[in-house]
Amino acid sequence: MLKELVIAIQSYYKAHRFIIKHKLWKWILIPGIIYALLFFTGMWLFWSSSTQAITWLSAKLGVIQWLKESDNSLFNFLFIFSSIIFRLILMFFYFSLFKYIFLIVGSPVFAYLSEKTEAILEEKDFPFSMAQLLKDIARGIKLALRNTLWQTVYTLAILILSMIPVVGWITPVIAFLIECYYYGFSMLDYSCERHKLTPSQSIEFIGRHKGLAIGNGIVFFLLHGVLIIGWVLAPAYAVVAATISLYHQKDEY
């Protein structure tokens, strides 16, 4: 798995050189700008609403009043730290839902970009088919809904665990890795579908190559640390990088 993590991370550098060489910028910038605008708006709404949610929950549970009465600095520290952890988990959950909506809406562009990348790598054309494109979109929606369901289950379990002092402090790392895996899964599935793998076969295949999925998702999230530019480049770069990383595994399909 460590080897696949390295391959997935290196694929972003290869994707950058690939995009420059083959002048794919219009397929990168248009969906990227839309994504960046939606991401900024969504995160602003999340941050303001999450503060209200935590305040409301704390008041309902009587935590704030209890802390005032106890006047214990250790308990206050644990509450503040747990609130931060809880907000981080909520952020991953929100980001997950936002991500799947964008993947569903952008699936035609991402499917085409993945196909074009592999066509250039193999020096051949994949004939355009509207029927196949609609099939790809339907498959993408189906898998997105499936992944949303499972990730919601995992996230709810992690939210409960995050409320436990000390033990819950590791939950953001777990949530981050799960988020990375499912995002990378979506990027890799475009190639799996093109090679005629059924959804169940794709799930099984990517499950054997978790490192590629997690590595792709890790770099995708790290790109969000580069304000604006990273937000614009992250989605399409992830598609191209996933296609390149999986191209060398094609004999295993």
List keywords for this structure.
253 residues, mainly alpha, 9 helices
Question: What can you see in these coordinates?
Answer:
With 253 residues, the chain is mainly alpha-helical. It has one domain. Helix content is 85%, strand content 0%. The chain has 9 helices and no strands. α2 packs across α9 and α5 runs antiparallel to α6. The longest helix has 50 residues. It starts with a helix and ends in a 6-residue tail after the last helix.
In a nutshell, what does this entry contain?
This protein has helices at residues 2-21, 25-61, 63-70, 73-122, 130-162, 171-194, 199-208, 210-223, 229-247. By secondary structure, it is mainly α. The model has no long low-confidence stretch (mean pLDDT 80).
User: What is the residue-averaged pLDDT?
Assistant: 80
- Elements, N to C (H/E): HHHHHHHHH
Q: Helix amount, in percent?
A: over 70%
Which class of secondary structure composition applies to the elements?
Answer: mainly alpha
Largest sheet: none
Instruction: State the end-to-end CA separation.
Output: 18 Å
Q: What is the molecular shape? A: elongated
Q: Using DSSP, what is the number of strands?
A: 0
Q: How much is the radius of gyration in Å? A: 20 Å
Task: List low-confidence stretches.
Answer: none
Q: What is the tally of helical segments?
A: 9
